[in-house]
Design brief:
This protein is mostly beta strands and 184 residues long. The chain has one helix at residues 155-161; strands at residues 2-6, 25-28, 36-40, 47-51, 62-69, 103-104, 139-141, 144-146, 151-152, 164-166, 170-172. The longest helix has 7 residues, at 155-161.
């Protein structure tokens, strides 16, 4: 996904409340294998994926940055219809478990105890970790009754389920438009 927004003259004194840049929008989304090209390194022969996008001509200074994740758009409690991240309040356990909204119901055959040290080279954990908080009473989530004692996904598990990266912005200064700070 590539994001773009206009550079605003006047520095931070003109940034709207909450530091919101209302011109920011999604330019291009790369989903699955669409738009990706397999490339082989000429140095060591390893393969990687490449994507390409030509930014349309612009008359105003702007920035472009990349944002990516391992999740598609419209994942419940994680991404919206455009693939943008949702607030982590659905997996927040602080100060209590009232905000927990994602049941973890996979029993699994390899679930270490909460006191077990677990290394990356051991067999994959295939069930809900034992340390997850449990519901003390039955509750209804999205019209479905979730019984008391059900483990709920907490922030530490959710954090590794949806990985995101953000690039630093690349600024494009257009002659006769807003100046970009730091460009000589």
């Amino acid at each position: 996904m590539s994001l773009s927004g206009n550079v605003v003259a006047g520095g931070l004194s003109v940034v709207p409340a909450g530091a919101k840049n209302t011109s920011t929008h999604i330019l291009k989304t790369f989903n699955g294998s669409a738009g990706w090209t397999a490339v082989t390194s000429t140095v060591d022969g390893t393969q990687f994926l490449s994507m390409s996008y030509r930014i349309p001509a612009t008359t105003q200074s702007q920035y472009v940055r990349l944002r990516g994740t391992n999740l598609p758009a419209s994942v419940p409690f994680e991404t919206d219809a455009n693939g943008s991240p949702l607030a982590d309040s659905f997996t927040n356990t602080v100060p209590n478990t009232n905000n927990l909204s994602i049941p973890c119901t996979v029993a699994g055959t390899n679930v270490p105890t909460s006191t077990t040290t677990y290394n990356y080279d051991q067999p994959k954990i295939d069930g809900c970790p034992n340390h997850l908080p449990t519901l003390s009473a039955a509750t209804t989530l999205n019209g479905v009754v979730v019984p008391a004692g059900t483990k709920m996904v907490a922030f530490d598990v959710a954090a590794w389920s949806d990985l995101w990266f953000y690039s630093n912005p690349v600024y494009v200064e257009v002659a006769g438009s807003s100046l970009v700070a730091g460009v000589n």
